[in-house]
Amino acid sequence: MNMRTGLFTSATALAVAGTLVLTGCGSSTSDTNSGAASPGTSGKAVGADPSLAALVPADVKSSGKLIIATDAAYAPVEFKDDKGVIVGFDIDLVVAIAAKLGLKADVQNTDFTSIIPGLASKKYQLGMSSFTDTKEREATVDMVTYFSAGTSIAVKKGNPDKIDPNDLCGKKVAVQTGTVQADEIKDKRNPDCARAGKSTIPNDGDKFTLQTDVTSALVAGRDQAMLADSPVIDYAVKQSGQLEKIGSTYDTAPYGVVVAKGSDLTRAVQAAVQALMDDGTYKQILDKWGVAAGALDKSEVNAAKS
What we know:
Blueprint: H1 13-23, E1 32-34, H2 50-53, H3 58-63, E2 65-70, E3 73-74, E4 78-80, E5 86-87, H4 89-100, E6 104-109, H5 115-120, E7 126-127, H6 135-138, E8 141-156, E9 173-176, H7 180-195, E10 206-208, H8 211-219, E11 225-229, H9 230-240, E12 243-260, H10 265-279, H11 281-289
Parallel strand pairs: 2-6, 2-7, 9-10, 9-11
Antiparallel strand pairs: 1-6, 3-4, 4-5, 7-12, 8-11, 8-12
């Protein structure tokens, strides 16, 4: 997750690390951001579509709002600006989704790993936090696709440790807990290292609860590389001025809005996303955040290939 709004720059590694931490400070569920306003695509608010609003379950409709969980530490997709407001590509989009359905978006900041359990307990109605759509996730939740991203690798500028993106064996690699990148190290990269008779990535990766802490660990030199979603890596490279991307983006797959398994809300959300794609609002949001390369033209439910 990455994007603009509240651009941060620094001259030293320490300053950059501190700024990146502030971008997503805290993950308490008490940190909320009402999405009643326009997503700010071009100053034009998104209006309700009566035919889509009719798809909203009665209990949600009566509340007048969608309660959405996000981990606001994944710039530029979802993060906090310098005023502490939750912003980003995902946030603009979910505000627009809610508006299409005749609802207001109540965006709540929480730990990434608590979002899916929070849907199961009905604490939240949607999860909007750069979730890659996977078969494993689809076993417990519905995923409504809306964006395409892959995994990228970043290192310190100039690649002082001569990191090979195809061989991270024995290197200190930072990742966010609960992500597909953390799974990649544990399930693929380290077994491959062991089979090749090489040292594995220590501890199956240096894992952090917040992506901002992942980035800070690399900037400060505590880790030698980081794995994250491609828009996050691009944003970190641009904002820090002290990192660079190595290798190509790989394992491209769609992001999905997370909805409770079998919920009547799934169809409503998918229809709203498709309507935003069709009427141009979706493109305006992607252009605003500079992520148009990940645009999809069709939203699907549970479309994971692996």
